Amino acid sequence: MPYRAPVSDYSFLLNHVLDYQQICAQPRFEDAGPDTVDAILTEAGRMCEDVMAPLQRNGDVQGAVLENGVVRTSPGFAEGYRAIADGGWVSTSASVDYGGMGLPLTVTTAVNEMMASACLSLQLNPLMTQGQIEALEHHASDAIKDLYLPKLITGEWCGTMNLTEPQAGSDVGALRSKAEPNGDGTYAISGQKIYISWGDNDFSGNVCHLVLARLPDGVPGTKGISLFLVPKFIPDEQGNPGVANTLKVVSLEHKMGLHGSPTAVMQYDGATGWLIGEPHDGMRAMFTMMNNARLGVGGQGIGAAEGAFQHAVAYAQGRVQGRSPIANGGGTIMDHADVRRMLMTMKADIFAARAIALANAMAIDMQTATGAPEWAARAAFLTPITKAFGTDTGIDVASMGVQVHGGMGFIEETGAAQYLRDVRVTAIYEGTNGIQAMDLVGRKLMDGGDAAFALLDEMQGTIEAARAQGSELAEPVWQAIETLREATEWMVEQGNLNDRFAGAAPFLRAYARVLGGYYHLRASLCDAGQGARTALARFYIKSLLPEHTGLIAAACQGADDLYALTDDDLVA
């Protein structure tokens, strides 16, 4: 079965579960009504089906290589990228002042997820550029915006993000890259960066790197870091790529997956760069890009899950093996209860994760349109949940996809394993999922839990309406929310931050589980408890939602048991 873009699922979620109408009711987005969005998603979906999906296997088998200092991309990727750029899919949410569409981030989130499910290796390129566009829109000088944004938005140039160094991974403040003033408003950037996604390519006119480095008077740690724009080619007076900058790709990483995406070790040797934002304030500017990327990476996980699910369903529909006791079966492994359990879990979790990601994007859009602090708090709270649960879902679903294939899932030619290999890194980059969980119980609860409790209150208000309609699924979701409320209160009350951190990962997953139950419940109300949406919701609420009980028990144990064994005990 060829890849099918799930446009109807986005439409259903936006218009019937998540109240997208509140976004297009804002003057900023009044031209992005449901009909317009459906047309846009349909066109993007067609590009994903016809152009990107056929490149999925190519990128895996013939990955990017470095030849004589030149990055050669996978066969067909140049044409695929041009289709993305020419369709405007790099710039759906970019400012119209510089040639973007100015659409809600919600739309971009759906488009990006479809691209990820069609070909994750190639989708990573525009995702990086989108983050750079947003960072420049918020923090760059007018001169930088005028020169770089139009070319990034059209896709003529690509963007990257350079944080990590060999000794500075999650601890960004340990970086050693330096920036020396040149005396003419530019800076000489020197240092080495690793894990640079799409650090170079052979199809764009320029590659623009956002690089974190320290000025001579920068203090140690993150407070002394500045952000610089360092292009591969220095633009000439007409704004065209000019002389080559003093930077190079040292090597490409040999990775578990994402072979079509060149992950570079970058060397900067006094390369010319321009300061973005204020001196020593680089982390704030970079976080604009990183927060965009965290939502996007959550979408990558969901996209990979969608691709793996469709792949597994197609195999199960055609694979005849054994006999099932059900009546009127089709004779394929789809009849077997355990295979059906895996497929139902995959579909139910994709729906839950997708709903959370779109709700996150909608909160960002409402913050952008209204400036209301409650929307900013909602967006910030949902971001680590979206990133961690979305990518965990991608890994879990891709792993189940291999299992559905049985022995053939372990054979590379079926393509099932590629989804698992490709998606595995999404739980690591843009902040590991452990860091996302610690952020959730740390920074995101610094408001005393106001954002967390506001979301719980909103969910219970909706469930009251479900109770009035006589939904049998309302009560278990209500009870799950009450249990989650108690766990949130426990987290807020802990004075020892490490006690929060010890239970951060199960707490985040519990919150996501409950959100998933809530969105499934809302979906069931749309078909009056009679149709497929209700059947899927019933499965999720009765079979998957109960997981939250054990997660919350683990979340509220504190840190003592984690340190009960000494280091020597652990290795004995």
Structure characteristics:
two-stranded antiparallel ribbon; Four Helix Bundle (Hemerythrin (Met), subunit A); alpha+beta; 11 strands; 572 residues
Protein described:
The protein is an alpha+beta fold. It has a domain at 433-561: Four Helix Bundle (Hemerythrin (Met), subunit A) (Up-down Bundle). The chain has 20 helices and eleven strands. The chain has helices at 7-17, 21-24, 34-52, 56-61, 77-86, 105-118, 120-139, 142-154, 282-318, 337-370, 373-405, 416-423, 433-441, 450-468, 474-493, 497-502, 504-526, 532-544, 547-555, 567-571; strands spanning 65-67, 70-72, 157-162, 178-181, 187-197, 206-214, 225-231, 233-235, 241-244, 247-252, 263-276. The strands form three sheets. Strands 3, 4, 5, 6, 7, 10 and 11 form a seven-stranded mixed β-sheet that branches. The protein has a two-stranded antiparallel sheet with strand order 1-2. The mean pLDDT is 95.
CATH topology of one domain: Four Helix Bundle (Hemerythrin (Met), subunit A)
Q: What's the overall geometry?
A: globular
Q: Report, as a whole number of angstroms, the end-to-end distance.
A: 50 Å
Counting DSSP E segments of at least 2 residues, the number of strands comes to 11
Task: List the uncertain runs.
Answer: none
- The radius of gyration computed from the alpha-carbon positions, rounded to a whole number of angstroms, is 24 Å
| Structural class determined from secondary elements | alpha+beta
> Taking all residues together, what is the mean pLDDT?
95
- Binned, the helix content reads 40-55%
Main beta sheet, described?
7 strands, mixed
So how many helices?
20
Q: According to CATH, what is the class of one domain?
A: Mainly Alpha
How much strand content do the residues show?
A: 5-15%
Proper CATH architecture of one domain? Up-down Bundle
